[in-house]
Amino acid sequence: MIDINPNGTGLPGIEQLRVIVGAVMTIGLVLSVLALIVAAIVWGFGANSSNPHLASRGKTCVMVACGAAIICGAAVTLVNFFWNVGQSV
């Protein structure tokens, strides 16, 4: 039986890589919030100017921004979940 687990100290620079990934996740969340604000403004302008195409695009962008925030926030949990699924195969 082979038992291999991830080694957090096996390569130099692993800690710096963790810091970089955390920073990228933060940037992704900040950009998701910015996109949500802009999309809500577009949705509001479209609804108030009787422009259904603009309102529809705003609604779609609100959902995309929320989805991006969910993926950024759940990335570590999703990877860990699928790692555990792969380990049980």
Concise synopsis of the structure shown:
The protein is mainly alpha-helical and 89 residues long. The protein is built from two helices and no strands.
Can you offer a commentary on this structure?
The protein has 89 residues and is mainly α. Helix content is 81%, strand content 0%. It has one domain (21-88). Helix 1 (14-48) runs antiparallel to helix 2. The model has no long low-confidence stretch (mean pLDDT 93).
Could you outline the blueprint of secondary structure elements for this entry?
Blueprint: H1 14-48, H2 52-88
Helix pairs in contact: 1-2
Give short descriptive properties of this protein.
mainly alpha; 81% helix; 89 residues; single chain
- Count of helical stretches: 2
Largest sheet: none
Q: How many domains make up the 3D coordinates?
A: 1
Name the helicity range.
Answer: over 70%
> How many strand elements?
0
Distance between the terminal alpha carbons, to the nearest Å?
Answer: 14 Å
Low-confidence segments, given as residue ranges, are: none
Topology as H/E string? HH
Query: How would you classify the helix and strand content by structural class?
Result: mainly alpha
Mean pLDDT score:
93
Q: Which band does the percent of strand residues land in? A: under 5%
The value of Rg in angstroms is 20 Å
What characteristic shape results from the CA principal axes? Answer: elongated
